[in-house]
């Protein structure tokens, strides 16, 4: 027996919305999905007319859908935005080079300007080279820290006013769980915010227009729209601890589909005890980027790489920051601790 | 985003393997008898001492329990609450080094009825516990959960805390000492509940209908917790106890915290898991076992022969994915096995949360959930998860109702939040009065309790005290609306 669309009651439903359980036809699903993103953008006042907005594009499903929806909504509701794609080339052979091809195709399909910033030109290191020195274990630390900064640098080069990223509801919920598991109060407080305030020079405000979109619906949307995206896991990625949180979240979703939204609701409504020590935001004394320490994380990591002490940025070695800044030599004991890990 | 857990990895993976012939880390003389966590090996005596000290220290530093105060211990029969009972027994005994000076009583709630247990099973468990309680010499109450059906609506409204004469802890101590330091009236009280009150079968059936109306185990467990809590608070209140002690261990609280997050109880989290919870006003809930891990308690109970009773639960013998509570428990336990700091990290995250709105600011009962008695978190601000959910549901429903509609449109098939044909079969869609009732109830619930009620096939089986409280609040707000133009400000609503 064909099920009718619960929205238009005319056409045959082709899917069951993971978020609400309603059966919808293709057209009504597209409309609902787009309208929801639109309402999020309007309600959270994410953009102002005339702004230049960089869409962080990796070629994956989230950013492909984001680029598509942003372009569509910009035209449909005349946001008056100038859109651009920003990609980061981490230098991972067999992964990023392929996904960047997808981004380049997207650029043509959507007729948006594209800027690619690479780790190699920014830091002089590709991820391939980093992994060679660091090993497979902590390389995500480098990649994550560098990417955050690389996106900002790219945004500054393009002179965009804002960056939007493809983080979806699952990502946000997962991050809430992760921050609880790690006891990271400062991040727990920030992670449910839909946009970051402009934090200073060289830091472009970011927002997540897909914050309330379920990952499964993003896939459904991309599938039915036949969007061109790249779906391969990063070859260096196996990231055990986040994987636990991810599996847990998926299990929760299978028990009660609203769990993802419920977790975000929880995160948005947490209240924190006063007097809990929070890191204070300052700037890096070497590169001027935002940092809660004397040196920002990427400068520390880079220093470690260049000195052949890759563990310098892994774990907490704040007391060494002074030494690095004043170019003092490290003691032998300190050096030994920071040498590469054996496998 | 990925970087920090990797830093973490390092510390987590460095687990020393305990060697069998280690000396106690405390006295450094005796051989260690127990390893609580990696690096912490204690001899028998030092373990006992530190265990007892931890309990005293928790009560000492929090200064919530005043001398001479009546404190009701909620004992479920499980290891943690039985351990708590033994600590209190130890603390008030004559030969204790620094005697605890409050007056304990015990309450046990027999939930067998909700689980559909046979009478003999229930009697067996209660008589076992009865013997245990009698030997303590404390007054005790053994109550069947069925009694929750007869509670008055007042359980759902916080009563103002009865002011201690000297308000401060210090003053209370002085007063206690002046009065001769004897709180002997506790002993004089008869030991009640020796033969637990007979349960009417009709009551058991009603209770089972109520639990059965919840379609998911997640909702069943949540509902059962709420009912138990109500009965506990009511018992404490009517018997003159101003504190209610729960035996939640650190492990239990970590699970509870993550469960609460997953159920959408972020706003109520601190109250659900903090040391003291004063949402009920005159009865404060305290959790003195919160710094013991489940393992530590198990070791202690085993070494010092603290009895406990195995009482089955709603999720006993269910698979991991049977409910959110069950899943979270197995998630935390498994993660703890691989990363031994999991429980304490989650627990410490909870420590940094604010017990917002305690009894003062958000005390207006109109703004409290009629089930969990916490402040409402359902304002649906712009760009919030709640608003996004409402939009999603609105957009997926019939396009006729695209524009926002008032929640109580009679004649509309589906009430604002629940699609029809969800649970009961779509045959009889327009039971508008019943849906209306559910919508009314929903408007008085917090986010998470709405989720629970949404999983129920019908709200008519809810206990009378809940339904009549809903009615009372509806009437009151209707009344307020009528006279609204004469009210100068809406800051006063205390009755």
Automatic annotation (TrEMBL), chain A:
Name of the protein in question: Cytoplasmic tRNA 2-thiolation protein 1
Family annotation (PANTHER family): ATPASES OF THE PP SUPERFAMILY-RELATED, CYTOPLASMIC TRNA 2-THIOLATION PROTEIN 1
Keyword terms: ATP-binding, Cytoplasm, Nucleotide-binding, RNA-binding, Transferase, tRNA processing, tRNA-binding
Pfam families associated with the record: ATP_bind_3, zn-ribbon_14
InterPro entries reported for this sequence: CTU1-like_ATP-bd, CTU1_C, Ncs6/Tuc1/Ctu1, Rossmann-like_a/b/a_fold, TilS/TtcA_N, tRNA_thiolation_TtcA_Ctu1, UPF0021_CS
Main location: cytoplasm
CDD domains reported for this sequence: CTU1-like
MF-aspect GO terms: ATP binding; nucleotidyltransferase activity; tRNA binding
Keyword Kinase assigned: no
Gene name of the encoded protein: CTU1
Domain tRNA(Ile)-lysidine/2-thiocytidine synthase N-terminal: 53-246
Family, per entry: Belongs to the TtcA family. CTU1/NCS6/ATPBD3 subfamily.
HAMAP family cross-referenced by the UniProt entry: CTU1
Gene3D superfamilies, per the entry: HUPs
Reported function: Plays a central role in 2-thiolation of mcm(5)S(2)U at tRNA wobble positions of tRNA(Lys), tRNA(Glu) and tRNA(Gln). Directly binds tRNAs and probably acts by catalyzing adenylation of tRNAs, an intermediate required for 2-thiolation. It is unclear whether it acts as a sulfurtransferase that transfers sulfur from thiocarboxylated URM1 onto the uridine of tRNAs at wobble position.
Pathway it works in: tRNA modification; 5-methoxycarbonylmethyl-2-thiouridine-tRNA biosynthesis
GO terms (BP aspect): protein urmylation; tRNA wobble position uridine thiolation
GO cellular component, one term: mitochondrion
EC number(s) stated in the UniProt entry for this protein: 2.7.7.-
Record-listed ATP binding positions: 56-58, 62, 88, 166, 171
Subcellular location, record wording: Cytoplasm
Enzyme class, first EC level, given as a word: transferase
Residues covered by the Cytoplasmic tRNA 2-thiolation protein 1 C-terminal domain: 282-312
TrEMBL record, chain B:
SUPFAM superfamilies: Adenine nucleotide alpha hydrolases-like
PANTHER family the UniProt entry points to: CYTOPLASMIC TRNA 2-THIOLATION PROTEIN 2
Protein name, as recorded: Cytoplasmic tRNA 2-thiolation protein 2
Keyword list, A-Z: Cytoplasm, tRNA processing
HAMAP family noted in UniProt: CTU2 (MF_03054)
InterPro entries hit by this protein: CTU2, Rossmann-like_a/b/a_fold
Functional note: Plays a central role in 2-thiolation of mcm(5)S(2)U at tRNA wobble positions of tRNA(Lys), tRNA(Glu) and tRNA(Gln). May act by forming a heterodimer with CTU1/ATPBD3 that ligates sulfur from thiocarboxylated URM1 onto the uridine of tRNAs at wobble position.
Pathway(s) where this gene product acts: tRNA modification; 5-methoxycarbonylmethyl-2-thiouridine-tRNA biosynthesis
One GO MF term attached to the UniProt entry: sulfurtransferase activity
Family statement: Belongs to the CTU2/NCS2 family.
């Amino acid at each position: 027996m064909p099920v009718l669309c619960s929205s238009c009651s005319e056409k045959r439903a082709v899917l069951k919305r993971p978020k609400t359980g309603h059966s919808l036809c293709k057209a009504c699903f597209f409309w609902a999905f787009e309208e929801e993103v639109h309402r999020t953008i309007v309600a959270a006042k994410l953009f102002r007319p005339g702004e230049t907005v960089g869409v962080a594009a990796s070629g994956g499903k989230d950013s492909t859908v984001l680029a598509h929806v942003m372009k569509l909504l910009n035209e449909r509701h005349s946001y008056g935005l100038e859109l651009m794609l920003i990609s980061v080339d981490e230098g991972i052979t067999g992964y990023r080079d392929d996904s960047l091809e997808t981004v380049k195709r997207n650029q043509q399909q959507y007729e948006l300007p594209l800027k690619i910033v690479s780790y190699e030109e920014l830091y002089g290191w590709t991820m391939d080279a980093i992994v060679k020195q660091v090993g497979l274990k902590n390389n995500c630390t480098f990649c994550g820290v560098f990417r955050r900064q690389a996106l900002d640098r790219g945004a500054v080069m393009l002179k965009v006013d804002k960056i939007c990223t493809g983080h979806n509801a699952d990502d946000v919920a997962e991050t809430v769980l992760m921050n609880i598991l790690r006891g990271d109060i400062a991040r727990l407080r920030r992670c449910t915010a839909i946009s970051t305030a402009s934090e200073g020079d060289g830091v472009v405000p970011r927002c997540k227009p897909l914050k309330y979109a379920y990952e499964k619906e993003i896939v459904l949307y991309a599938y039915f729209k036949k969007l061109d995206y790249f779906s391969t896991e990063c070859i260096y990625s196996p990231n055990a601890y986040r994987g636990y949180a991810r599996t847990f979240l998926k299990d929760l979703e299978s028990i009660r589909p609203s769990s993802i939204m419920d977790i975000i609701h929880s995160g948005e409504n947490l209240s924190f005890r006063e007097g809990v020590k929070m890191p204070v935001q300052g700037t890096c004394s070497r590169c001027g980027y935002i940092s809660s320490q004397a040196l920002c994380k990427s400068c520390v990591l880079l220093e470690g790489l260049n000195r052949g002490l890759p563990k310098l940025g892994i774990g907490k070695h704040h007391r060494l920051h002074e030494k690095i800044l004043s170019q003092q030599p490290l003691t032998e004991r300190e050096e030994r601790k920071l040498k590469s890990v054996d496998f | 985003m990925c970087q920090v857990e990797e830093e973490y990895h390092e510390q987590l993976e460095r687990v020393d393997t305990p060697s069998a012939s280690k000396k106690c880390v405390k006295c450094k003389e005796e051989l260690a008898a127990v390893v609580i966590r990696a690096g912490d090996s204690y001899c028998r005596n030092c373990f006992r001492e530190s265990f007892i000290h931890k309990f005293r220290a928790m009560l000492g530093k929090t200064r919530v329990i005043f001398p001479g105060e009546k404190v009701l211990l909620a004992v479920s029969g499980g290891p943690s609450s039985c351990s708590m009972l033994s600590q209190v027994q130890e603390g008030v005994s004559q030969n204790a080094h620094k005697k605890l000076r409050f007056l304990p009583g015990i309450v046990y709630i027999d939930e067998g009825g909700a689980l559909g247990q046979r009478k003999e099973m229930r009697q067996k468990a209660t008589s076992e516990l009865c013997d245990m309680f009698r030997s303590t010499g404390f007054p005790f109450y053994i109550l069947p959960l069925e009694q929750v059906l007869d509670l008055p609506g007042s359980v759902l409204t916080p009563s103002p805390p009865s002011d201690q004469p000297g308000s401060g802890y210090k003053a209370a101590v002085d007063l206690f000492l002046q009065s001769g330091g004897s709180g002997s009236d506790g002993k004089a009280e008869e030991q009640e509940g020796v033969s637990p009150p007979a349960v009417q079968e009709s009551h058991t059936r009603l209770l089972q209908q109520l639990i059965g109306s919840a379609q998911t185990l997640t909702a069943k467990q949540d509902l059962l917790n709420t009912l138990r809590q109500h009965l506990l608070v009511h018992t404490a209140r009517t018997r003159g106890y101003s504190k209610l002690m729960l035996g939640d261990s650190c492990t239990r609280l970590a699970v509870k915290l993550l469960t609460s997050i997953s159920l959408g109880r972020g706003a109520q989290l601190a109250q659900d898991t903090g040391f003291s919870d004063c949402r009920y006003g005159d009865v404060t809930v305290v959790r003195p076992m919160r710094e013991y891990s489940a393992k530590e308690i198990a070791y202690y109970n085993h070494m010092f022969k603290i009895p406990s009773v195995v009482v089955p639960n709603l999720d006993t013998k269910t698979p991991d994915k049977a409910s959110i509570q069950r899943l979270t428990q197995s998630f935390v336990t498994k993660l703890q096995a691989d990363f031994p700091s999991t429980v304490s990290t989650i627990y410490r995250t909870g420590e940094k949360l604010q017990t917002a709105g305690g009894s003062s600011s958000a005390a207006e009962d109109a703004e409290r959930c009629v089930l969990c008695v916490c402040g409402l978190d359902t304002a649906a601000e712009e760009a919030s998860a709640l608003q996004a959910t409402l939009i999603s549901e609105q957009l997926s429903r019939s396009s006729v109702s695209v524009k926002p509609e008032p929640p109580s449109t009679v004649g509309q098939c589906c009430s604002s939040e629940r699609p029809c044909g969800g649970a009961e079969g779509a045959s009889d869609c327009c039971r508008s009065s019943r849906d209306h009732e559910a919508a009314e109830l929903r408007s008085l619930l917090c986010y998470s309790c709405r989720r629970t009620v949404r999983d129920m096939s019908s709200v008519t089986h809810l206990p009378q005290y809940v339904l009549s409280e809903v009615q009372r609040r509806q009437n009151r707000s209707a009344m307020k609306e009528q006279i609204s133009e004469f009210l100068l400000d809406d800051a006063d609503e205390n009755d």
